[in-house]
Design brief:
Order of helices and strands: HHHEHEHEHEHEHEHEHEHH
Radius of gyration: 19 Å
Oligomer: single chain
Largest sheet: 8 strands, parallel, barrel
Number of strands: 8
Shape: globular
Helix content: 40-55%
Structural class: alpha/beta
Strand content: 5-15%
Amino acid sequence: MILDRTIVRLLPAVPRPIVHKLSERYIAGSELKDARETVRRLNGEGKLATIDVLGEEITNEDDAAAIVRAYLDVFADIEQCGLDSNVSVKPTALGLKLGYDVCRANLETVVADAASRKNFVRIDMEDSTTTDDTLRLYREMREAGYDNLGIVLQAMLRRTVSDVRALADLRPSARLCKGIYVEPPELAYRNFGAVRANFVRALDALLDGGSYVGIATHDEWLVDQGRRIVLERGLGRDEYEFQMLLGVRPELGDRLVDDGHRLRIYVPFGRQWYAYSLRRLQENPKIAGYIAADTVGRLVPGAFRNGA
């Protein structure tokens, strides 16, 4: 929408304190203690968590090493505080832009530390320029004996069901989401209904192969489809989960928990919150419109009631 793009163009001119105020519902904070308290609250509400250290598109080895150290601190904190949380990592935060081998070595350090603490790492999927390398990282690490590792697949990509079949021998633990990146039409579905349909196809394909799936969506129609599919398959509570982003559709998440489903909340934190916020909005202007509508809706009850 024109309004969404206008909001994005205006964002760099918005004072940082205001951007921080808008983003604080969706980002735990800038420090590990902020993530810790957010996860502790979520656990108290019967929800699981995935902690993400903000940072991506790293082009300096020292910066990538700092991200690795931050994840080691996260694992130590999770263990010490008895939190029910794992982590997600972005390949470009671990140095993928510096070289595949740099990223793989950094990822192995993170995954090995997680394994020593009986914790779990999920490799986030970024834009389509990184898809092949991300899937290669996952396969190589699994074949090296690391079973405490999962992957993310994006329903908007046309290749996703084929990727599910290619990964079938690994029975991957997969987070299935729509995807937020703006991709060329030859690589990604642009039609809303087509993305939804591919999501359901990918979910069925993953479950057919015996995968544990994190059904990651705020789309109530897809949530209902997920509930229907796991019910029809007779899956137990520990054989799947739903996943949502911090601060997005919390009332829908609460209903899932109340109905007995496992729900994991994605909890980003870090000092890169400002760059992260701007980048996410610039990559997908629809998110800017959503956040603006959500913010106005909280300030003016009843506003945008019929919105997306």
